[in-house]
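Our collaborator T.R. sent over the components below with a one-line note: 'Predict the complex.' Nothing else. No constraints on interfaces, no templates requested, no preferences about which chain binds where. So this is a plain run: every listed entity goes in together, and whatever single assembly comes back becomes the starting point for the next discussion.
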Amino acid sequence: MIELRDIHKTYHLGEVDLPVLKGVSLNIVHGELVALMGVSGSGKSTLMNILGCLDHPTSGEYWLDGREISRLTARERARLRNRIIGFVFQNYNLLPRTTALENVLMPLTYTKENLSEHQKKERATQLLQKVGLADRINHQPSQLSGGEQQRVAIARSLVNHPRVLLADEPTGNLDSRTSEELLQMFQQLNSADGITIILVTHDPGVAQHAERIIRIKDGLIESGTGPPRPGGAA
Amino acid sequence: MKSYGILKTASGALRRNVMRTMLTMLGIVIGVAAVITMMEIGKGATMAIQRTMASMGANTLVILPGAANTGGINYGVGSMMTLTPQDADAIVKECPAIGSVAPIVRARTQLVYGNRNWVPTYIYGTTPSFLQVRDWTDMDQGEAFTEHDVRNSSKVCIIGQTIVRELFGGQSPIGKEVRIRNVVFKVIGVLRKKGANMMGMDQDDILLAPWTTIKYRVVASSLTAANQSATNTSVSTEVNTLSKIYPNLQQNLYPVPSATEQADVPQPIRFTNVDNILTAARSGSQIPSAIQQITMLLRERHRLHTTDPNDFNVRDMTEITKALTSTTELITKLLLCVATISLVVGGIGIMNIMLVSVTERTHEIGLRMAVGAEPADILRQFLTEAVVLCLLGGTMGIVLGRGSSYIVSSVLHWPTAASVGAIVAAVVVSASVGVLFGFYPAWKASRLDPIDALRYE
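Returned assembly:
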């Protein structure tokens, strides 16, 4: 599903070259639930941006779904993000003064699929029901709790039926009980719908929920490169 | 479907911050309203100026008979007697560019009332439409003579303010009788004061009477009667004087037709002629076509061969017409300047707010890009927002502009004229201002890096 081969990423800050990723190789199989761990400055965010097709590597190969995508243009990457990848952010990133339903509908604006307004609404409503917000459909983010907002964000990330879900510190702003609920939801999405999920976190407690933990340090993979251990935790 | 989605997104974004949307729109609203108000007031002003100019005689065309040429001696313009009252009737009937026509018979002689006398600059025998041609229809006292008076050659006249002063010492002359060469005329009206013309001639020193009366009773009487006045220079009397000296001499008014021509096109004998014909074109712009129409008509009526020169002259008031045209152009340009400035100001306002909006919504842009918006989508969204803003603002501007020009015309009593052109222009311009000034912020937004945009706080 996802295969990185010797990924380098170097930022050019004026005269100085700042290497952030120094040859990352890793493998994620379809349907896995992995955690990407590392302290800040370890290159964790950069790796996540590359995995999420938000950025392209300086060198190396990135195979996603059987395609080499490290040299795609900004436009092609945008299409890929829309079709294959779902994002969940630490600070939810919902549009203010916009209802939950409209927030979930938003990515569909950029889809090439031809759906009628009715089909779109139906799909978004189903997803909101799935994350347990059936009665909050017309609430605005300011009227929702943190956990509810993050669930709207999850519904939004799922609206295009992505193959991969990329969650960047999804529980970073939430209390432990809500966090637990959300992580269970991720696990359920993974096992029931077969969506590959990558949890980016620095919290070992969160990482425990994953089948495999990839640790990154100083721009290199420290452990958990894969292939995955057979028969990991279900 | 797709464009509907974009429109929906744009209107959603605009509705999310109503205050900002309103403030942005205000620039365009005021711009467009200013354009429309200025255009309408300006158009009204232009029309008012045109009317004023027309009353000065800008649209007036004078038709003079041609020059007589006998034995190598040219007698100058007006020395031939080729114009008839029937020519005047034909012109008003057959020349669509002509609004009104008045034939004129001139006389210059003494006016007597009681123990006073006076020689007016103008004694004109004419028809009531003279007042329309000269834009002089509103009388100071009494009323004008009628077509009926012309047909009957009634001995009535209307006089200008100068004659009222000189003959009547300022008293009302209505109903009094003045004598012109011993013909008694009843004063039935007094003209409004018009002042001097551009040459310094006193236009109020005038007496108007039916042309039939002047022609047959006053001028003709001078053939037989002794001159009442010492001054006697009128062209009409000149000819008659000749015939008096040489009673057998037949004056040839027209080129003498050959026997064949006579047989082919028998010409009616013209009984009478007028000294000139005064006409007014319907508008300043129709003057050239009016001249052309008159020339064609009169050549036909006078049966001139294609090689013959005109036996008449058509004069226009070139100087005044030029002044009129240049004034109108000046006002139009001035309005264009004002309109452009206010729209540019409005447009820059839009650009400002859109730039602020892009910065403020960096996060949103980043998110939209992360979920799969292409740069072109972002560009389109912000551009649509700008255009929607401008069109909404434009619409409100039209309403406001029409309203304020209505208020201006009803409260200040300035002349205004509704201008469809201004409204169309305002809509087109406000849309293009939206595209023009919305493009840079939209382009800037589309060039954002999604990672930076997402991290931006």
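Summary for T.R.: Residues 272 and 436 of chain B are 70 Å apart (CA to CA).
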